[in-house]
Amino acid sequence: MSSSSTAVLVSELQKTLLVQLSNAQKTDKYHDLIISCKGTEWRVHRVIVCTQSEYFEKACQTGLKEGKTGRIDLKEEDPAMIDRLVNYLYKCNYDDYATLPLTNSQRQFPAEYPIQTRQLACIVDMYVRGDRYQIAGLKDLSKAKFSAALPNRWNKENLLDVIWTIYDNTVSSDRGLRDCLTPILREHAPELRSHAAFKNMLKNQEFATDFIEAWTSSDRQGPQAAFRQCPSCNKLFSWDAKLKCGCNVQPRNFRILHLES
How far apart are CA 225 and CA 209, in angstroms? Predict the structure, then answer.
């Protein structure tokens, strides 16, 4: 058999193995761990789950309750999202088309939201869970899905809720989804700023800073709105706001940032 034929055969065998691993999720054979959430159970395999998730690996360590009982109960979770997580662990993918309202870490996305917005919300939720359960591949996949879907799925009426979820559930050093927002913030800033909820978004200093940087990095020209920024803590204030950040910096020393409208 030639080397090229061998390579083709190996590729086919690898695909077969992936199918077999995926099918193992559907049967009770050889499972050695149960993940439960609000009455729903998933019978899984530690070699599949723990090798991809540091969270589950630590939970299954000898001596811990979960390791002894072979059961991990995620009491505060959403069963629909955990089902997607388990599917990812076995198939390296998950369904991001949500047909029902989604509950994420902090908010509920109503059924009247467009399917496109709920798809973005679903992807964000899965990214957050990739971080929570320390599954690097899930975060990478969710970032790729979000980046691909965002340009054609965003809606100014509902996108601010998605943005809020990102900033409310990721730390400032986690730039994965935040950087994906930059082109949208830069291109559609006037539309977003016209929304009544936008001023509330600016109360989140990390978002406000990213928004200002995204917009001022563009080459657009036009009328400008001004913000003031503390040079010590980088907190942003609208032009007419009281400058109170606790840094004892004189107002005259605050930076002036111009935001084109």
Answer: 15
pTM here is 0.75
Question: What is the share, in percent, of the chain residues with pLDDT greater than 70?
Answer: 76
Q: How confident is the model at residue 98 (pLDDT cuts 50, 70, 90)?
A: low
Given this model, what pLDDT does residue 199 score? 77
